[in-house]
Amino acid sequence: MQRNVNNLIGNNLDATDGEIGKVKDFYFDDQTWTIRYLIVQTGTWLSEREVLISPNVLLKHSWESGLFPVNLTRDQVRSSPAVDTQKPVSRLHEEQLAEHYPWQPYWGSAFIPGQVWGIIPSTPVIDPDLIQEPATIEQTTEDAHLRSCRQVTGYHIHASDGDIGHVDDFIMDDQTWQISYLIVDTRHWIGGKKVLVAVHHVQEVQWENSKVVVDLSVDDIKHGTAIDKWDYIIPEGDRAESQKHSFHLDKTLPMSPR
C-alpha cells in the first residue's frame, strides 16, 4: 500500500521486551528515494535520547495500529552509538550503527531494502552501478544524500518555467519503504490545491536554496488533479486506477539522471 509519511510520525516503536519510543522523523536517500532510518525519540527510560533505527529490523505489523514492533531489545537500543540528529549523519556513525545492530549497511554492497521479517526481503538486491570502492567510502565523512523528511517538507517546487508550491508530504510504499511521490501544496499559487509529483520527475534538490527542481512546467502542475487527504493511503489493488485518475502528471519519461 501507498502511505503518506507524515501520518507515521508519532507511531510507537516496541522492542521485544518493551517500548522504545515514538517516530520523530525519517531519513531518506535522495538518489534512490528510499527511507533508510527512522529517527526515534525515546521515552524517559533513555532520557528522551534520539536514536536511528533501520526499517530492516521492523517486524510485520498492522499499520493502522500505530505500532512498529522491532526485532531489537531495549538493551541493544540503550547501548547503541550516540548520534546527533541535528547534524548530518556521517558515514562513521552509520558504520558504527551497522556494526552494533543486526542489519547490513546499504553502501558498498549497494543494498536496497525489500522484505525481511514480513517487510523487507531477506535476500538483498545488488545494483552493480551503485557499488563504491572501499577507498571512496573511507574518504566520505558525511552521507551527502541522506536527508530528513521534515527538513525537505516546505521546500519550494521549481518547475521548468518558475516556482509553484512547496513539498507538503511524501508518499511511500509500505513494503519497500520507497518514496514514490511528493505531495505538493500549491495554496499560494492556485488556491490550496495539492497534487502528486512522482520522484522520477525530480532533477535536483537544491539544499542551499531549499528547492526541489522538477522537469514539469508550471502549467503541468496547475492542471494536476487535486488530491484529497483520504487518497494518501492507496490499496494495492486500486493503486493503478487511483494513480491514473489522481495524477496525470506522471508522464512516461525516463528516470532523471543523477
Q: How would you describe this protein?
A:
The chain has 258 residues and is α+β, with helices and mostly antiparallel strands. The protein folds into two domains: 2-139, Alpha-Beta Complex (Photosynthetic Reaction Center, Chain H, domain 2); 153-246, PRC-barrel domain (SH3 type barrels, Roll), CATH 2.30.30. The protein has helices at residues 74-78, 91-100, 134-139, 149-152, 187-190, 218-222, 239-246, and strands at residues 2-4, 12-15, 18-29, 34-42, 50-53, 67-69, 111-112, 125-126, 146-148, 156-159, 162-173, 179-185, 194-198, 202-206, 211-214. Strands 1, 10, 11, 12, 13, 14 and 15 form a seven-stranded mixed β-sheet that branches. Strands 2, 3, 4, 5, 6 and 9 form a six-stranded mixed β-sheet that branches. Strand 10 (156-159) and strand 11 (162-173) form a beta hairpin.
The computed structural class is alpha+beta
Span of the ends, CA to CA: 27 Å
Instruction: Let me know the average pLDDT.
Output: 76
- Kindly identify the CATH topology of the largest domain: Photosynthetic Reaction Center, Chain H, domain 2
Question: What's the architecture of the largest domain, going by CATH?
Answer: Alpha-Beta Complex
Helix content: 10-25%
* Overall domain count: 2
